[in-house]
Specification:
The structure is a homodimer. Chain A is an alpha+beta fold and about 90 residues long. Chain A has a single domain, classed as Winged helix-like DNA-binding domain superfamily/Winged helix DNA-binding domain (Arc Repressor Mutant, subunit A, Orthogonal Bundle), CATH 1.10.10.10. The first copy, chain A, has a three-stranded antiparallel beta sheet. Chain A contains five helices and three strands; from the N terminus they run H-H-E-H-H-E-E-H. In chain A, strand 2 and strand 3 form a beta hairpin. At the A-B interface, helix 1, helix 2 and helix 5 of A face helix 1, helix 2 and helix 5 of B. The structure holds a DNA duplex (30 and 30 nucleotides).
DNA sequence: TTAGTTTATTATAATATTATAATAAACTAA
DNA sequence: TTAGTTTATTATAATATTATAATAAACTAA
């Protein structure tokens, strides 16, 4: 049971686009249109990844004028990614 | 590119059976037959998960008499899991 | 209102992952 | 050798994930 929850969380982090989303939100809010160019996927696909991250409580969003902006809600998610990245630079 | 590698690694950890395998190997070697009862999946399925973990360099194995025993090769994998687990106990 | 902009949703095809069943492979021990 | 034990592999069906295309929804600003 505990393994299911942990696995589910790691699985959500285990996608390159979602990792790009999280690392590009490291320093605060970004609207969807900006994320689109940073992450380099279609608006539709991006929106789906954002929802996956939001549903897991990793992101939150708010409207700012004409745009909707996302930011990191659970900083730990980013920490896991950073930690995993560190292992690879150490490994080679 | 870097994201792909990190994502690939996290994806491998994002499965309950593979998490069970890793946590049950925390203190050293275990042969496949023992893992089978701990993890609670069929021998065939277990063997496939072991191969996935071995191919990623997370596990290694050696023959001990009639059995084949696995142990953790990349301790960092377990650290990631422990870290993720910790987040949930903190969260609630 | 209406046109335009931004984001979300839905349906779906393509692909990847997983578990099962059957069998093969690699041994050991008699 | 041969029988028995342990583990790996293969084929495949079931399921999950992903990206695309089309469209809807939610706004803003004129």
């Amino acid at each position: 049971m505990r393994e299911e929850i942990t696995a589910d969380f790691l699985k959500v982090l285990g996608h390159p686009s979602r990792i790009k989303i999280l690392t590009s939100l490291e320093n605060g809010y970004k609207c969807v249109r900006d994320l689109e160019s940073v992450v380099g996927i279609t608006q539709s696909n991006l929106s789906q990844h954002l929802r996956i991250l939001k549903d897991k409580g990793i992101l939150e969003h708010e409207r700012r004028g004409t745009e909707i902006c996302y930011r990191i809600r659970d900083r730990n998610a980013l920490d896991i990614i950073r930690f995993a990245e560190k292992l690879f630079t150490e490994r080679g």
